[in-house]
# Entry
Amino acid sequence: MDNSKKDSSKNSKETIQQILSDEIERRGLRKTPERFTILEEIYQTEGHFTVDSLYNQLNEKNYHLSRATIYNTVEFLYECHLVLKHYFHKEAEYEKCFNCKVHHHLVCTKCGMVKEFTDSNIRRDVQTRHYKKFDMTHFSLVVYGLCEKCQNNHQV
Ligand SMILES: [Zn+2]
Ligand SMILES: [Zn+2]
# Structure
């Protein structure tokens, strides 16, 4: 799969809607407007989110959807490769991924801080790899350790 082709942002909005729409059709599901509302909200969100934070965000914008609807939709989008799912902590965290820059995460095992970083060498290394009987769509490296604040607390 080649995600390196750059779309303009207008195009990519139409493209992600099309991917969702095709997948809904393929599975014989109903094209409820909620799914597209959630998709749009996610693609306006920078960084990571949880089902709860997305629920609150939508609520503030007067979209009163149930947590179950949001959870099911986000999981569906994950299956469509439109969002990534991480387990840095107990609760799943998601982020948009279509046409987004490949990045990695530093996770502090003490305070839970998550910081993003990019590394073009790692990206090139993994993206050019072919895994046997496996079709790679995305990847993200997680590096564990102590953040600056926790290192300092450690030494005292
Ligand atoms: Zn820390
Ligand atoms: Zn991230």
Notes: The chain is about 45% helix and 15% strand.
